[in-house]
Amino acid sequence: SAGFAAAGFAAFPLAGCKAQDASMLDSTDGSNLLAIPPLQRGEIEQGARVFRLSLTPGQKEFVTGVASPTIGIDAPYLGPTLEMRRGEWVQFHIDNKLAEGATVHWHGFELPAAADGGPHQLIRPGERWRPSFQVRQRASLYWYHSHLERGAGPQVYAGLAAPIYVRDDEEERLDLPSDYGVDDIPLIVQDRVIDGSGRLVYPLSMHARMMGVRGSRIFVNGTENAVFDAQTGQLRLRILNGSNARLYDFSLEGDRSMQLIASDGGLLDRSHIVRSVRLAPGERAQVIIDLSEGRPLRLLASSPENAMGMMGGRGMMGGGMMGRGDSGDASADVFQILDIRPASSAQRIRVPTQLASLAPTDPSSAVRTRRFVLDMGMMGGGMSINGAAMDMNVINERVPVGQWEIWEIANASMMAHPFHIHNVQFRVIDRDGRAPPPLETSLKDTVIVNPREQVRLLLRFEEHTDPDLPYMYHCHILEHEDAGMMGQFVVVKS
Ligand code: C2O
Ligand code: CU
Ligand code: CU
């Protein structure tokens, strides 16, 4: 049968099937208890943490009573949160029980290219893939997802994505909320298109090829209109924009403030009080919210772009310092994505303002500059980086190991692109010469590049690997990635 990655899966003849994960409708107002992905710690075997996972076809009711075909990892849709510690070795046994090839990429990790899970590490149906690597990343929220050649969009959309928690001593010393599912909550935010009959569809129209597939309904961990009953006076929310293409400004109803503590690759040097956090697909942020007043809180997500991908008003900064109500046409598009109900007696715990010690971002340490120009061509018909579309047989960049470089990412198009680089956590030097906002003051692996903007990154790859096996850099709007806004690099001995 045709795969999810083929022409789109709306044609699967599964309407009317009863889903196993009947949605957890718990009230008459249409709200649902927030699904929390199960936490999986794997098993320690011969000094390594071993995870056994299967990619499986599933069904999910996005609308009660109507099942849609999905893909999950040991689940009908999405998968377990994998927990690991910095410094340890992890090993995976990943069985592909799908009827199509797939890959599993460890987004945000520094690892050997053979373990990366990019388009070159195809797992055919019925095959098992066994990557292993040492966890070098700082404690943070990372994620794993499909990276199939020309097919990441439909597979992630169908559910092939889930969170990873890396823990470490540096973070544990701070005593931040870290009780999984209690006061430390992963939120995978995804928009989806549900057709008139209530089924999930992946409409790859001309418009969606250009803009990416964007839905008008928002799910958090697969739950729409989600409710979370807090038991503590504060919550740590780990937000992952797991959408294919939509950017969001996250905020609390009533303009309440949040404490921003971490970006993609770990803690900021200090916490920042913010009222809004902007995340593009692939980006993460962690915020602490205060429930000690006993008032319910609503997490909102609004779109900073209009239907044509234009940023409205002054919302061009990215990363969380802007106000709201200034985002042009899309400001009408405000979704209430999570209702947080406080505990009756909630204590406030103080979060330290000083969080981590980060090396200063020093561009003078760089020995060379590389430039990457992102473009879309006419009507999205020419997705490219430096004028070339992704070619599996072409290595675009050879980067010497261990040397600081500046990567200059220039956006020649009229819509924003989240630029992601594998095998590294980088620092943001500046945006058109301006200092980056708080979210971009720590380690990042994905960065928004606004229309006509140039963002400079400082980075260094730690280890050279197989000279013929490349890593990827690409736009994390998955339809752009699938259409070729991606390139390949190898890390070579200097
Ligand atoms: Cu999250 Cu190359 O992707
Ligand atoms: Cu990645
Ligand atoms: Cu893009």
TrEMBL record:
EC number in record: 1.16.3.4
Taxonomic source organism: Parapontixanthobacter aurantiacus
SUPFAM superfamilies: Cupredoxins
Protein name listed in UniProt: Multicopper oxidase CueO
Subunit architecture: Monomer.
Pfam family, one: Cu-oxidase_3
Catalytic activity from the UniProt record: 4 Cu(+) + O2 + 4 H(+) = 4 Cu(2+) + 2 H2O
Alphabetical keyword list: Metal-binding, Oxidoreductase
